[in-house]
Structures are given as structure tokens and as C-alpha cells.
Hints:
The chain crosses the membrane at residues 27-45, 57-77, 83-102, 130-152, 172-194, 201-223, 235-257. By secondary structure, this protein is mainly alpha-helical. It has one domain: Rhopdopsin 7-helix transmembrane proteins. Helix content is 65%, strand content 0%. It is built from 12 helices and no strands. It has helices at residues 9-13, 27-49, 59-80, 85-98, 104-117, 127-150, 159-194, 198-223, 234-253, 257-260, 276-283, 309-321. Helix 6 (127-150) runs antiparallel to helix 7, helix 7 (159-194) packs antiparallel against helix 8 (198-223) and helix 8 packs antiparallel against helix 9 (234-253). Residues 267-302 have low confidence and may be disordered.
Amino acid sequence: MSNAPTAGYDVVKDINFTGGFPTSKDLAPSIVFLVAYIVTVPLLCYRLARREDRAILLLRPTIFVGARIAMLVLRIVMTKSSYGVGTLIAELVLTSVGYLFLIDPYVESWKRHVQGSVPRAIRPYWVKPLAFSLWVLLFICIIVTTISGALVSRAFDSQSWLTAIRGLRHAAFILSLAVVLLLAFVIIFTHFYFALSVSRLLHLLIPTCCLIVVAVFRVVQSFTTNPDAPVRSVAAFYVLQLFFEFVAYMFIISVSLPKWYPGDVTHTQGSRTTNARDLESGLHGDTGKETQGYSQSEPQQPRWTDRLLIVRLFKYISNRRR
Length: 322
């Protein structure tokens, strides 16, 4: 590996970082993904500049794109010339931290989806606290991952520092996996519990599943000690992480987030309210059809999901809180 860092190679190799040491095999896929991300920048800028599409949520994917472009540029440079440990550490941090900024937009979009579709009278109290808790966990992951990257130089001093760095990375990877798994669960649960929009379900769930694939890959790869294992190959990194990240990123910028997820809306008591499916049918011109919104005067018919034990448990907890 002629392009590997000349100093501290063995120490850094023991960290088993995601993506491994860039070699000539990384050149072509790095260029492909770099071009793909650069092509999407005009659309992202359009979303940020257009008043109807502008949202604070877009700041996270903007940071993600910046991190990915910088990481890919570094990997391309590292495949063509020798590099030091400092450059490798920068690439390591960008690879690990960038992914975390892609999760938060879906947490916030899910929260806004529930708030904009379910009247306050029957809205579960735990939506906002849960979304905030997931945000806190992601923030902790970002801090821990950044610290572990900054401490890599300490690994040259003793084996204990190397063990601590690996432990921090493992903790951050496992925690991020727990976040996306919980996010997928609540997306599915609230959809069936409140009969929300199918299109919003797919828009949230498909990229969340992509993020789960990335999270599982990161965890498995970090715990795999065999350097020849398939999960530590170049193809695994570019397919199981970069490709699925790109799919999840495209779902964010493909729609106008303020229009799809407007957030909390005012529902008038005693009048028929509109849920996400009503809005969806209205967008398709079915305004003349009778809709089935949540209303105190017109209770909904029981659904098969109401018989599920976990649904009944959540209903019981919500009723006790009210």
C-alpha cells in the first residue's frame, strides 16, 4: 500500500475505521460519487433559495453534502499521492460524522408529519419528547465521534488510548443504529395508529431503511477484525454506506419539506378536521369526495391495528396522561 501514511500506519490500522486506507481501487468510485453529489448541489441551492421550499431542516443535509464532497476529494487525493496521519484523521472524521447529519431531518420530518396530521385533542404527548430525545442522542454521537477522531494522535502514546478510541467509535455506531431503528418503528407505528398518508410513510420509511443499512454496516465493519472479510472490502464501503446514504439524501431534496411536512396546524373543535390523507386527496383534485378526518363528532371505526397489544398499551398510557 504505497500511498498509506508512512508514519503510524500500524497504529491507525488497528482502529479499523470505516472505508479503510484509500488505494487506487478507490479512485473510480470516489470520482463517481463526487460527481453525483456535485450534480445535486444546484437542486439543494434551489431549495434553500426558494421561499416556499426554504426550511431549517435543509441545513443538516447541506452539512452532510459538504462533508461528503470534502471526504471524497480527500480520498481521491490520497489515492494519487502519499499522505500523513493528519489527512487520514480528517477523512476518518468526515466519513463518520457526515452520516449523522442525514438522520436528523427524518426525525424532524416525522415529528412535523404527526403534528400536521393529527389534531391536538388526540395527538400523543410523547411525539415531541421522543423527537427531542433522538436529537440529543444524535448530538451525543456527533460529539463522541469527533472526540474519537481528535484523539487518534494519542493512540501513538499507549495501547490504552487505542482501546479507548475504538470503544468511543463502537459506542457512537451502536447508538446511531439504535436511533434509526427506533425512528423506523415510530414511523410505522404512528402511520397505522392514526391512518396517516401512505405517500408520507414511504417518503419517510424508505430512506430510513437505507440509513439502517448504513448503520448496520458501520457496526458490523467496526467489530470485524479480519482485514480480508467482505464487509471490510472497498465494494462494501461504497455500496453499503455511500450508495445508501446518497439514496436517503435524494429523498430529502426531492420534495418541498415545508409543503410535505408543515408541522403543527390549528384544528377547530366541533368541526371536521383534515388529516394527511385528506390533504393528499385534495392535492390530486379529489376535493369533492367525502374524506375521513379525525373528528370528535364522527368517531372512526376500529381498525385491525387497534387490536395489537402494543397499540392498546400506547393508548392506555396516553389516556392516563390526559
